[in-house]
Amino acid sequence: MGSALASKLTTEQAPSLGGIIGHVHLIFHAFLGCNRPLPRAFARLVGNGLLSYLRPRIQSICVNLYPTNPDAVDDDLCQNILRDSLDPGAINVMISGTKLPTPRTYNEVVAADFGQSGSAGVESQFTGPILLAQGILDPLNDAKGRARQLKTLRNGIQVAELEGGHCPHDEIPEKVAAAMVNWMKDTKAERMAMIRRPLQTQQ
């Protein structure tokens, strides 16, 4: 999809592209006098320009994002990304980025179970175990700092710091799978207790 392609920026490319798009938004909003999304025609122009810039660079960008296993960046992966970026709906995914709500904080996201165990439309506080597989070599953000932050949110959060980049599930799937298996073994009793509690309440 367009969003997958747009996320595949190296650290060197991200500031220049992000800076250009950011300045376009600031200039437009200054003239418009409010913080509305860009007009659809203008957003399509910017989005198509970004996609046109990224398409011929798919392989080199992905190689930078798979630092420990560049061989995983094969023709199938690159062709799939290219195919998705050429889908007629890809530009709509790009444009939707200007309409996204304010990102939620880490602690809000890990605490929410999105109403599944609470009243309809009300988020209850999820306190169960969570596993986060973080590629600490991810060039798109401060991966080590993010791992440290996630660990301190609350008890029950386990961060598997893996020697991988932006897509560890694809770059080093065997290490991600091993981390998941170990986590499932370590948290089996706690997870089973969480399942039994609602059943006992219903009885």
Q: How is this structure best described in words?
A:
With 203 residues, this protein is mainly alpha-helical. The chain contains eleven helices and two strands; from the N terminus they run αααααααβαβααα. The protein has helices spanning 2-7, 13-32, 40-54, 58-65, 75-85, 90-96, 106-111, 143-151, 168-171, 173-186, 188-202, and strands at 130-135, 157-162. It has a two-stranded parallel sheet. Strand 1, helix 8 (143-151) and strand 2 (157-162) form a beta-alpha-beta unit. Helix 3 (40-54) crosses helix 6 (90-96). The longest helix is centred in the first third of the chain and has 20 residues, at 13-32. The protein is globular. It starts with a helix and ends with a helix.
Question: By helix and strand content, what is the structural category?
Answer: mainly alpha
Uncertain parts:
1-23, 117-122
Q: Can you count the beta strands?
A: 2
Largest sheet properties? 2 strands, parallel
Give the overall shape, derived from the CA principal axes.
globular
Quote the average pLDDT: 78
Number of helices: 11
End-to-end separation in angstroms reads 46 Å
- Gyration radius, rounded: 21 Å
Helix content: 55-70%
Proportion in β-strands? 5-15%
**Major β-sheet strand ordering:** 1-2
Order of helices and strands: HHHHHHHEHEHHH
